[in-house]
Amino acid sequence: MDILSIAIIVFCVMETANVLILYFSPDSRLGNGVAVFDSWEDAKKDEPMDLFAHYMTYWVAGTKLIFIVLLLVVLFTGTELTKVWAVVAMILSIATYFWRLHPIIKKLDSLGKVTPKNYSKVLGWMIAGFLIMFSVALGIELFGMLC
User: Fold this and answer.
1) Who contacts 29 (Cβ-Cβ below 8 Å, separation ≥6)?
2) 3-class DSSP assignment, residue 114
3) How far apart are CA 48 and CA 50, in angstroms?
């Protein structure tokens, strides 16, 4: 099995766990469970806000599911070149976390609105780990293609 396939499988397994948490246990603080945000509990006190919070949570889960399924299609039917471009796309799309989402969760963390404290750092490192994993796999694959 090639290195890109291994990286794709690792990502799919981890993100599938996150999708299951978001759909079936959004009150969890595991993985990407939204209960890390103190506002999650606040939203439950107001029905329209609770519905909105759940809608957004399921939207995120659905988006993650789209990525997972598309990556599985690439994994099982894609050529080596298709896998390379899929990994490039993953690197670029995952990197957008640091553009918009990380500054927000970092600010919420500094305001004491995220539990556990410093979760933004843990999440940032986890996402950086995905970027590193895909970048290293891509580097190894490209090196192998050139040799």
Assistant:
1) 35, 36, 115, 116
2) strand
3) 5
pLDDT in tens, 17-45: 999 999 999 999 998 899 999 999 999 99
Check: CB of residue 20 under 8 Å from CB of residue 73: no
CA distance 35 to 60: 14
Return contacts of 62-69, CB within 8 angstroms, 24+ apart.
Answer: 64/15, 64/18, 64/19, 64/22, 65/19, 67/15, 67/93, 68/12, 68/15, 68/16, 68/19
Distance CA 70, CA 83 (A): 11
Q: Which residues of 86-107 are buried (b: 16+ CB within 10 A; e: fewer)?
A: bbeebbeebeebeeeebeebbe
C-alpha 119/C-alpha 41 separation (Å) is 17
Backbone phi, psi, residue 114, to 5°: -130, 135
Task: Give the residues of the chain that fall short of pLDDT 70.
Answer: none
Q: How far apart (Å, rounded) are the C-alpha atoms in residues 39 and 48? A: 14
Please give the structure tokens belonging to residue 87.
């990994």
